[in-house]
């Protein structure tokens, strides 16, 4: 039996929005895709069927990335199933209802940091263990999905979320230097004002429509536009890019 040499990608938080669009585009570009999700099995299963309809393999893994044991198990499943990992997209993240700092609790702050920051660290750690040349890996590429909020601070709405994405940017820069000699590239994207379901999590489903007139491009972005940037950063076309960021926020 011929060995499948197609590259393997893990997309966290892949059941909706930017993660879903990225998983589909990776499949179209010839990747086998591990679909990570934490709750919505129906949406994740539907995505898997779409990927398989494109002629590519998929692997469904339900795992909360803030759970260290679950993260380790997920990477072990990928290794057992396909024997390799070439690309990681750290897309999973949460935000909560819009609030000024006066409404933030330690529980809320810690939950956001635990998933958005600790979870991303854990996934990067496990990916490096498998990609690094010193461990017998082939190298690889990691893209961290940050946010325009990392630069704006998102005052009056999502200070805690913005801070978590700022931490992700610091991780991206530092890790890119740490693993450059291991054949691993680490880059980030900073989407902003994208039409995804996440805005409803913050209590304002139509937030992009409220804000879009103030943007230089005067429109919101689509998940597929962010996915295109992510997939480019993962590709050989971006082979000399590491520690860099693409801003995808309509010029804001």
From TrEMBL:
Transmembrane segments: none annotated. GO terms for molecular function: glucose 1-dehydrogenase [NAD(P)+] activity. It is an enzyme of class 1 (oxidoreductase). Gene3D superfamilies: NAD(P)-binding Rossmann-like Domain. Its EC number is 1.1.1.47. The keyword Coiled coil does not apply. Pfam families: adh_short_C2 (PF13561). SMART domains: PKS_KR. Residues 7-187 form the Ketoreductase domain. The keyword S-adenosyl-L-methionine does not apply. Keywords: Oxidoreductase. Belongs to the short-chain dehydrogenases/reductases (SDR) family. This is Sugar dehydrogenase. The lineage of its organism: Bacteria, Pseudomonadati, Pseudomonadota, Gammaproteobacteria, Enterobacterales.
């Amino acid at each position: 039996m011929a060995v499948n040499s197609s590259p393997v990608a893990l997309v966290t938080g892949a059941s909706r929005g930017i993660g879903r669009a990225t998983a589909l585009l990776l499949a179209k570009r010839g990747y086998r895709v591990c679909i990570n999700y934490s709750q919505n099995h129906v949406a994740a299963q539907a995505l898997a069927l779409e990927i398989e309809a494109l002629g590519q393999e998929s692997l469904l893994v339900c795992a909360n990335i803030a759970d260290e044991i679950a993260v380790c198990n997920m990477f072990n499943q990928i290794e057992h199933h396909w024997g390799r990992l070439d690309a990681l997209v750290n897309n999973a993240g949460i935000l909560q209802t819009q609030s000024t700092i006066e409404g933030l609790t330690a529980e809320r702050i810690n939950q956001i940091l635990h998933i958005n920051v600790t979870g991303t660290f854990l996934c990067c750690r496990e990916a490096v263990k498998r990609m690094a040349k010193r461990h017998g890996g082939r190298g690889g590429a990691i893209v961290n999905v940050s946010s325009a909020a990392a630069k704006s601070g998102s005052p009056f709405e999502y200070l805690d979320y913005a801070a978590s994405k700022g931490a992700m940017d610091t991780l991206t820069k530092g890790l890119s230097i740490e693993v450059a000699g291991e054949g691993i590239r680490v880059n980030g994207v900073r989407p902003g004002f994208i039409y995804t379901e996440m805005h409803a999590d913050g209590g304002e489903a139509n937030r992009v429509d409220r804000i879009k007139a103030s943007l230089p491009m005067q429109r919101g972005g689509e998940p597929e536009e962010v996915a295109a940037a992510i997939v480019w950063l993962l590709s050989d076309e971006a082979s000399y890019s590491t520690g860099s960021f693409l801003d995808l926020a309509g010029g804001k």
